[in-house]
Amino acid sequence: MRNVIVFVEHKGGQTRKVTFELATEARALADALGGKAHAVVLGGGAGGLAERIKAYPLDLIHVSEDGDVDRFLIDPAIDYLERVAKSAGPSLILVPNTMYGRDVAGRIAARLNAGMAADVTQFGVEGGRVACTAPKLGGVAITTCLFKNTDYGVATVRPNAFSAQADGSGAEIVAIEKPAGRSYAMTIEDDVEEASGELGLEEAPAIVSGGRGLGGPEPFETVLKPLADALGGAVGASRAAADAGWVPYSLQIGQTGKTVSPQLYIACGISGAIQHKVGMRTAGTIIAINKDGASPIAEFSDLVVVGDLFQIVPELTKLVKESKSS
Amino acid sequence: MRFSIPEVSGSVKIVVTVKLVPDTNAEKKIDPASKRLVRAGMETVLNPYDEYAIEGALKIKESLGGDTTVTIFSMAPAASKEVLRKALAMGADDAVFLTDAGLEGSDVWGTAFAMAQGLKKVGFDLVICGGLADDGSTGGVPGALAEYLGVPGFTNCRRVDVTGNTLKVQRETDSGYQVVTGAMPALVSVTMAIGEPRYASLKGIMGAKKKTIATLALADLGLDHAVGGDGAKTEVATIAAPPVREKARIVEAADGAAGAKVIFDLLKEKKLV
To answer: Which residues 38-67 on chain B approach chain A with CB closer than 8 angstroms?
Structure first.
């Protein structure tokens, strides 16, 4: 593989920071491989978004605003992506490690008979081959895998693992021709936003997470959310809190929930069972607020504050807000 | 591509893919010498996400009645075959176990490719997968399977309704959900919101002992690509232990303000505010 193709996930032209992280990393990889850096933007709003992505160091941005991409589940997007991949030649395809990204990765890898690397946090190029480093088994091991052949490869990339740097270089925007003779079987009848405008947990740079110690659903809104907002982050939860029905499962972090790696993780009233640990242990700075200093969470935190979270968190929110306004 | 379209309404052949993983509640360690997971004393269990897939399948079977069947399909080393009894005890009708020394060392691509050929062999109207594997694999497998099977792949479903030959699903997205319709044969993957997996009853456990676990080998699949370690498209170069986090500083907070100050000072020091 010589080229790098970024699959851009977005909704109506709204995208997340990971898109720009991938665009930046694509440049570095393409240079190391001696190829070109591409991006693919599909569906409603693609044109406008491509103009924004242009500020990042890509060579070509392939665009289609075909309505089929939003009317039918995933299949049209894969057809377009395949078309770009085939025309670019042997490539590494980068997709964000999100719910949709994982689907895209599996589909395009099978379509191209390509190898797959998951949840990548670091890339390297060794002797013309791409090496992908990723935490496995909930961060117990850090593995580096190499793509064996030089055809196609697909990597899902962990959000927040790479930096995004615009250089205003102005990639060329090109239209993708519609793949002919396709019909699509999965019709999207309705698309409902339940958490509109909120940052995805996997992409949040800071997470304030609550467990059994919260005692009910309200403190997630009244105590944790203000701190998460002040930090520009998101609220998460332990399995105990999700099982109790205090928060939806989509907020659950851990072995049977989401794996996150924010720069800052504040665990409130979470004891730190293995179930939870494997979902967050690779976070940058981990702070626990707990009644019990001997909880297992102390074993993988940087700081444990023993005290009443209902008093500490609001005070901390105040301090963070003041620091922003000053 | 068509497999076995149900001719009689209420007669759907459901196949649930199940991965077998090291005990999810055990602390995992890597042996620094062999760079492999230390499996000594570690039980093999059903991937917890796949228990939700089994639950989803049994719910559909109950809603359809008739001759609907649920078959468990798993690809794993021979020694773990009996772990599938748990799935049968939950209420699945039978199981197919794909096992072959030649499959060992398969990467994600090889796993999906071989499983797809196995599923074609078994035949299905509806394949149901769990959303993710618990041992750190990709979550890309359901999509890859759908692609190799040439059927629609409805991923991350929290609700699946089957009427005649049509499917109507609610699938979770990062920001909400979508309602998507299509026809069988198809593949769906389910999320935990599909419903808590049922416990096996004593009757179920006893009955499972008599249920059939058929075996498939690599030669039965007639693959046109090499799989296993030789056919893998990726290879593991290194396995390292994660950087060790320094021992936590533990501070007793006299009151809310004092606790907040300690945290805020660390945030400032790390330039997080």
So the answer is: 48-49
**Tokens encoding A185:** 């079987």
- The whole-number pLDDT of residue B229 equals 85
Most confident of A75-89, A166-180, A243-257, B29-43: A75-89
**Fold match between domain A3-175 and domain A201-325:** yes
Cβ of residue B271 closer than 8 Å to a chain A Cβ: no
My answer on whether omega of the bond before B142 falls inside 30° of 0, hence cis, is no
From the candidates A157, A299, A312, which should be mutated to test the interface with B, based on the most B CB atoms within 10 A? A312
State the pLDDT at residue B34. 66
Q: Chain A within 8 Å of B157 (Cβ-Cβ)? A: no
Contact A40, A66 (CB under 8 A): no
- Mean model confidence pLDDT for chain A: 92
Interface list for A 7-66 with B (CB within 8 A) = 11
The interface residues of chain B toward chain A in range 90-129, judged by CB-CB distance below 8 A, are: 107-109, 112-113
Closest CA relative to residue A23, chosen from A157, A114, A133: A157
Give residue for tokens 């569906």. Answer: A43
Q: Which CATH number is correct for A201-325, 3.30.70.1130, 2.60.260.20, 3.40.50.1220, 3.30.200.20?
A: 3.40.50.1220
Domain ranges of chain B: 13-231
pTM of the model: 0.86
- pLDDT, one tens digit per residue, over A91-143 is 999 999 988 999 999 999 999 999 999 999 999 998 889 999 998 877 778 89
If 0-12 CB within 10 Å is exposed, 13-18 middle and 19+ buried, where does residue B131 land?
A: buried
- Segments of B164-271 assigned E as strands: 166-172, 176-183, 186-190, 213-216, 234-240, 249-252
Please check whether the domain covering A3-175 is classified as CATH 3.40.50.620: yes
Single-letter code of the amino acid located at B16: V
Contact B192/A at CB under 8 A: yes
d(CA B125, CA A190): 25
| 3-class DSSP state of B63 | helix
All structural domains of chain A with their residue ranges: 3-175, 201-325
For the domain made up of B13-231, the CATH class stated in words is alpha beta
Torsion sign (Cα): A166, A172, A173, A174: negative
Dist CA B239 CA B247 (whole Å): 23
- ipTM for the predicted complex comes to 0.88
Collapsed DSSP state (helix, strand, coil) of residue A318: helix
